[in-house]
Design brief:
The chain is mostly helical. It folds into three domains: 112 residues; 111 residues; 204 residues, no CATH class. It has 18 helices and two strands. Strand 1 and strand 2 form a beta hairpin. Helix 4 packs parallel to helix 9 and helix 11 runs antiparallel to helix 16.
């Protein structure tokens, strides 16, 4: 019942939005679905269920679903104010609201899928439903970003599809692509086809996640940061098949390679970055790399990777929403064009600074713990000390470069021609709640860590 509500409610609301074509009605429908998604996710956490053979909850996807539900609700609250500043026709507002509904529904479909083919379909749906959100500003830059996003992600999804075909070739008589069947028959799958399929699927889904070197869409389509969370679940599901087949070392080596490559690319490009929203995008690539390193560093690293993924999702949402406030106040995305943020808009300035402190891994935020535990996991699993040194070196470069930009924007004399607007609660409330949740996770970790431990045990 709850799964059906999550997957079917957006279709009904989308039809109503298209019939009404009202800006306020579209925002209201998104808020309604956000409430439905959050309620249904908590019900599924308390009482797991299935909906047809293709959808069910388990300890892994319920974690991802709860993250999605809380993030989407915060974004919908912010959207009630954000959409007022966008001058567009009735059809544009209606299509924006519809795609904003269908995007989280597609991600929920990825998370709840029990079949590899069905998961692939919903990953492709996240690309199609989010493309219009990137193009919504109807500028040349947004059009270029949308086409780059569609083209690169479609190529990636095609490679993942090839990987699924290759995996099917190695199944033999066990021709089911349901995950439970794949897990049970993992050792019967032809090793050659199994390893080859992982390479294609990892690159394919890794394109959506934002792993380097298949990350090129993300700096331009930087507003779509939630989508890597759902695609990452596809990587986790397929990796588990190889681990059960006895190829854990092969999986870990690939994840570590892509993880460190992502960190390196982020460190190189963020040094000379001039656009603060692109800076956040490269930070996302960096953190996806950290998660990949955690997943590839052994059993302890899996738990820590999930901790990092959860904390990063809320921190990065806070940063992107706050950057939206900055764009609205200053009318520019260039770092050099923003000065004196703390003097111009104290609430936005402090949220910008605190969110940076959180993403930098400073106490009392959870990334402080996750990054050090990932380094410890690298050492405890016999990895060379050079891996740990390289890990902290690249993190330091990213932190120094991003910190320099954040401090430049926050202090100094305010820039000229700043638009003065009265403070609006929806512009700040989601970020405040996200940051408070992170502090609570650190201060009172019992229930939250139990959820992570249950999920880590199934990976």
């Amino acid at each position: 019942m709850m799964i059906a509500m999550i997957l079917l409610t957006p279709a009904v609301l989308s039809l109503l939005i298209f019939m009404r074509k009202s800006e306020n009605f579209g925002s209201l429908c998104n808020l309604l679905y956000a409430a439905v998604l959050l309620f249904a996710s908590f019900r599924l956490y308390l009482k797991p269920e299935s909906f047809t053979p293709f959808f069910r909850t388990d300890q892994v996807n319920i974690l991802f679903l709860l993250i999605l539900a809380v993030l989407y609700l915060g974004i919908c609250v912010y959207n009630t104010e954000y959409i007022k500043h966008k001058k567009a026709g009735a059809y544009s507002h209606a299509f924006y609201a519809i795609h904003l509904l269908m995007f989280p529904a597609s991600m929920a479909g990825v998370m709840l899928s029990t079949h590899l083919g069905m998961l692939w379909v919903f990953v492709e749906a996240t690309t199609l439903t989010s493309a219009y959100l990137i193009y919504f500003n109807h500028s040349d830059a947004s059009l270029e970003a949308a086409w780059k996003y569609i083209f690169i992600c479609s190529v990636g999804i095609a490679l993942a599809f090839v990987g699924i075909i290759i995996l099917s070739m190695g199944l033999g008589h066990a021709d089911s692509l349901f995950f439970n069947d794949l897990y049970q028959n993992a050792r019967q799958i032809n090793p050659f086809w199994l390893k080859l399929s992982l390479s294609f699927i990892l690159v394919g889904f890794g394109t959506k996640v934002g792993f380097a070197p298949v990350h090129a869409w993300l700096p331009d389509a930087h507003s779509e940061s939630p989508s890597p969370v759902s695609a990452l679940l596809g990587v986790i599901r397929v990796s588990k098949i190889l681990k059960l087949a006895g190829f854990e070392g092969y999986v870990n080596d690939l994840l570590l390679l892509m993880g460190f490559l992502s960190l390196f690319v982020s460190a190189v490009f963020i040094i000379r970055i001039e656009n603060y929203k692109r800076m956040l995008a490269y930070s996302s690539i960096e953190n996806m790399g950290i998660i990949a390193i955690g997943l590839g560093s052994g059993e302890t690293g899996i738990f820590v990777a999930l901790l990092h993924l959860t904390a990063h999702s809320f921190i990065k949402a806070s940063l992107f929403l706050t950057s939206g406030n900055i764009v609205h106040r200053y009318g520019t995305k260039t770092i050099s064009g923003v000065r004196g943020l703390l003097n111009t808009d104290k609430m936005t300035g402090w949220l910008w600074m605190l969110s940076f402190v959180a993403i930098a891994g400073m106490p009392p935020f959870p990334l402080f713990l996750s990054e050090f535990l990932i380094a410890k996991s690298l050492l405890s699993n016999g990895s060379a000390t050079v891996y740990t040194v390289l890990f902290f070196l690249l993190l330091t470069i990213v932190l120094a470069a991003a910190g320099k930009s954040v401090f430049k924007m926050s202090f100094g004399e305010p820039s000229e021609h700043i638009e003065k607007h009265p403070a609006s609660i929806p512009e700040y409330l989601p970020q405040v709640i996200f940051l408070l949740m992170l502090i609570i996770m650190t201060a009172v970790p019992e229930g939250f860590y139990h959820l992570l431990e249950n999920a880590a045990m199934e990976i």
